[in-house]
Amino acid sequence: MIEVFGGLPQGADEETPVFVISVAAQLSGLHAQTLRSYDRLGLVSPGRTAGGGRRYSMRDIALLREVQRLSQEEGVNLAGIKRIIELENQVEALRSRIAELTEEIATAYAAAEQAAAAVHRSYRKDLVPMRQETALVVWKPRRRR
Question: Which tens digits make up the pLDDT trace of 25-59?
């Protein structure tokens, strides 16, 4: 996480929209008009105040820096950058879903093992287990003389 002015306000995290557009522009190294343009294009969508003012989070600042890097260093156009961001968001959503499903499977597996153990405990104690063996008998009739 990026350290800014000694950190974020108490109770805020990197997702909390706290920075006005002028501060976000300064932190990202971009002009405020560029931030407005990116917002209109849907590249970086900051939070809004009740009055409609933009508020940027640390995550937004990092995303603005990434947009700038992709544009300037990699030569990707804004449409390409938007698609990259969309795909990265989809990948993150899929990773979250995989984690949820993995947890559900682990819970279901534990419940199935508990149910199996309960069934085993319910077996009648007066029954004695017997070894089951199989045998093969080959019958050869005697020859008639």
Answer: 999 999 999 999 999 999 999 999 999 999 999 99
- Considering only CA atoms, which of 55, 49, 81 is closest in space to residue 68? 81
What's the pTM? Answer: 0.66
Q: How many CB atoms lie within 10 A of CB 7?
A: 9
Phi-psi region of 131 (alpha: psi -120 to 50; beta: other; left: phi over 0): beta
85 in Cβ contact with 59 (< 8 Å): no
Largest CA distance in the chain: 116
SS3 108: helix
Helix (H, G, I), strand (E, B) or coil at 12: coil
Give dist(CA 39, CA 17) in Å, integer. 14
Is residue 56 classed as helix, strand or coil in its secondary structure?
strand
d(CA 18, CA 11): 11
Q: How far apart are CA 94 and CA 12, in angstroms?
A: 26
Residue 48's DSSP bridge partners are 54
For residue 61, give the nearest of 90, 88, 22 by alpha carbon.
22
- Chain center to CA of 137: 62
